[in-house]
Amino acid sequence: MALTRKEFLKLSSLVYKQSGINLHEGKKHLLEARLGKRLRATGISSVRQYLKLIEQDKTELTHFLDAVSTNHTYFFRESRHFECLRPEHVSIWCAACSSGEEPYSVAIDCLEKGFRPAILATDISTKVLKEAQEGIYPIEKAKEVPLNLMKKYFKRGVGKWEGYIKIKQEVREMVTFKRFNLLKGHPPREKFHVIFCRNVLIYFDRSAKERVVNNLYQALKPDGYLIIGGAETLSGINHPYKYIKPSIYQKPSGRY
Ligand SMILES: C[S@@+](CC[C@H](N)C(=O)[O-])C[C@H]1O[C@@H](n2cnc3c(N)ncnc32)[C@H](O)[C@@H]1O
Fold first, then answer.
1. Residue 212 in contact with ligand 1 by CB distance below 6 A
2. 23 and 133 belong to one structural domain
3. Atom 7 (ligand 1) nearest CA
4. What is the pLDDT of residues 106-135, one digit of tens each?
5. At what angle do helices 126-134 and 58-68 cross, to 10 degrees?
6. Per-residue pLDDT averaged across 128-147, rounded?
7. Is 81 in the pocket of ligand 1 (CB under 6 A)?
8. Which structural domain, as residue segments, surrounds residue 235?
9. 177 and 60 housed in the same domain
10. Catalytic residues
11. Residue scoring higher pLDDT (253 or 249)
């Protein structure tokens, strides 16, 4: 499936408008491959027809955004960030949670430290949210989790679930999954002590990034932390946070 320049520009600007994801020229092959999957799934043969469909059909638009987003994640990713989690942090938001490894790792870290926060976990992709909610993963993922924590917080599948691991109920119950588009949605009314927004800003351009982090600021309690990915930075964009250390920013106390 080779896209003409015009088709590429139309699709990439639609993706940008809908999700903030910046598909520059270097991502043309990725877009072609992911679009190809949706064309096969819908039985549509022309890009023009598919564009028409996603303009009219919200469900297919969601499937398309699911297909173009990159969901790579793993348990205990950049776990040094968890050092800032403390018992007074009773509400935590993982704002681009992918298939759940991040919020479940946060939940396990807190349980190990002796507290049980409520964790909201959101993503734009309904496909990954479904996987996250199930909390079932291929057994290969067990190597991402320290052995003592694997034994304590996961179950090994048997019978038809041989080859899978499942998060235990006590961890699953701490996390509520919802769809949320960082660029379009109004942040939840609830205010959070900590917001993880890791490894997603990297896909946004400067203006989208600025909008997202300023919106997240509204959802933080004073003294609350915003944690971004290790490869990301807020330098070069306008924002009101206090820099604490690489990847960690704070809403100054007394600010609402
Ligand atoms: C690379 S994963 C990062 C997952 C996890 N935070 C981590 O660090 O491992 C990026 C996630 O951001 C989500 N995403 C992309 N654009 C988004 C948007 N506009 N709103 C919410 N989530 C978005 C993708 O669906 C994907 O699951």
1. no
2. no
3. 73
4. 999 999 999 999 999 999 999 999 999 999
5. 70
6. 97
7. no
8. 79-250
9. no
10. 34, 123
11. 249
* CATH number of the domain where residue 119 is located: 3.40.50.150
Q: Whole-number mean pLDDT of the chain?
A: 95
Smallest CA separation from ligand 1 atom 2, residue: 71
- CB of 105 closer than 6 A to ligand 1? no
- Ligand 1 centroid to 94 CA: how many Å? 10
- Expressed in angstroms, the distance from the first to the final Cα of the chain is 49
Q: What's residue 185's pLDDT?
A: 77
| Residue 255 pLDDT level (bands cut at 50, 70, 90) | low
Query: Count of domains in the chain?
Result: 2
Report the candidate in 65, 114, 62 with the shortest Cα–Cα distance to residue 85.
114
Mutate to test the pocket of ligand 1, among 14, 123, 201 (most ligand atoms within 8 A of CB): 123
Tokens of 236: 């070069």
Q: What is d(CA 122, CA 178) in angstroms, rounded to the nearest whole number?
A: 5
**Helix count (H) and strand count (E) of the chain?**
9, 10
**CATH classification of the domain holding 61:** 1.10.155.10
Q: Give per-residue pLDDT as tens, 60-94.
A: 999 999 899 889 999 999 999 999 999 999 999 99
- Separation CA 177–CA 14 (nearest Å): 26
Among 53-62, 130-139, 182-191, which range has the highest average pLDDT?
A: 130-139
